[in-house]
Amino acid sequence: MYFYVVTIKGIAMIKNRAKILKDKILKMNNIDCHESLWTPCEDILRNFYEKNYAVVVLNCRIDLNVDHRKLLNLWTKAKLRITVDGGTRRWLKWLEAHEYETNNTVKPPDLITGDMDSLPPHLLSFFEEKGSKVIRTPDQNQTDFTKALRELKTHCEQNLIEVDTVFVLADTSGRFDQIIANINTLYKASEFLGDKKIYQIASNSISWLLQAGNHRISIPENLRRDKEWCALIPMGAPCIVTTTGLKWNLDKSTLNFGGMVSTSNTYSGEPYVTVSTDRPLLWSMGIEAIL
């Protein structure tokens, strides 16, 4: 029998070598090592689940027009599964509509969070019996979405779960105020979740926040071919933005409400869009062409 002792110094050396190897691979593919790389379409729709990720289901309709097996796979392979208040009922209805049962095959939510004003008590009991942990978050000064992300952080820390990406099922449901509230949560989340990537997935789009800095976004061939829409929206404050890979690129342009906002943009045909911004900036992209 052999025993191996790995010291803290040894772990640091391994991590450093891994980083060097990663940087070499990025350079070989002409990717700036200081850029944040975003590949949500590949991650969600092509069963490329190599990330440590969580899934959060908000109290919105689940209307993603994708093979239901892929969505279920996204749920099943997650490190952490959270339903938020009425999102629990929405998820159960989606499962029933696709003839799935919450048994040993379909895992129940790990956490059910929220003020529970939109979740019937019998459904709460149903999932509690299946092992879901219920965390009531009655604070009305924050949205259930914001509180759910805070509970995600706490749960991961307490249970030593590593999560670097969060996929949020968050369709618009026709409520403009909820759309704005969900975007506001993206801005707040960076304060307590750090650099974790949070994608909001709607029936025909994916949106997320680009922090100040440089970004490279992978654009699937279908979206480039069909000239699917994309947008850069300065929700928080004016942003100075430079891009490549768009039909209408920006060159140190100021985006702000009351001035220019880059909506209804599309792609030039290159496999990546690069974005440089001096402040947080919302990116949104249509995905109907790949569903």
TrEMBL record:
Which sequence ranges form a coiled-coil region, renumbered to this chain?
A: none
Which SUPFAM superfamilies does the record match to this protein? Answer: Thiamin pyrophosphokinase, catalytic domain, Thiamin pyrophosphokinase, substrate-binding domain
Record carries keyword Kinase = yes
Q: Which key words tag this protein in UniProt? A: ATP-binding, Kinase, Nucleotide-binding, Transferase
Where do the Thiamin pyrophosphokinase thiamin-binding domain residues begin and end? 213-281
Q: CDD domains recorded for this chain?
A: TPK
Q: Which GO terms describe its molecular function?
A: ATP binding; kinase activity; thiamine binding; thiamine diphosphokinase activity
Keyword check for Transmembrane = no
The record's annotation in Gene3D superfamilies points to: Thiamin pyrophosphokinase, catalytic domain, Thiamin pyrophosphokinase, thiamin-binding domain
One GO cellular component this record assigns the protein to is: cytosol
Gene Ontology biological-process entries: thiamine diphosphate biosynthetic process; thiamine metabolic process
Q: In which pathway does it act?
A: Cofactor biosynthesis; thiamine diphosphate biosynthesis; thiamine diphosphate from thiamine: step 1/1
Q: Which reaction does it catalyse?
A: thiamine + UTP = thiamine diphosphate + UMP + H(+)
Tell me how this protein assembles: Homodimer.
Q: Which family does it belong to?
A: Belongs to the thiamine pyrophosphokinase family.
The free-text function statement in the UniProt record for this protein reads:
Catalyzes the phosphorylation of thiamine to thiamine pyrophosphate (TPP) utilizing UTP and therefore links the biosynthesis of TPP to pyrimidines metabolism. By producing thiamine pyrophosphate, a cofactor of the mitochondrial pyruvate dehydrogenase indirectly regulates pyruvate oxidation and lipogenesis. Although it can also catalyze thiamine phosphorylation using ATP and CTP in vitro, it does so with significantly lower efficiency and without physiological relevance evidence.
Task: Name it.
Answer: Thiamine pyrophosphokinase 1
In its UniProt entry, the species of origin is given as Sitophilus oryzae (Rice weevil)
Q: In the UniProt record, what gene is named as encoding this protein?
A: LOC115881948
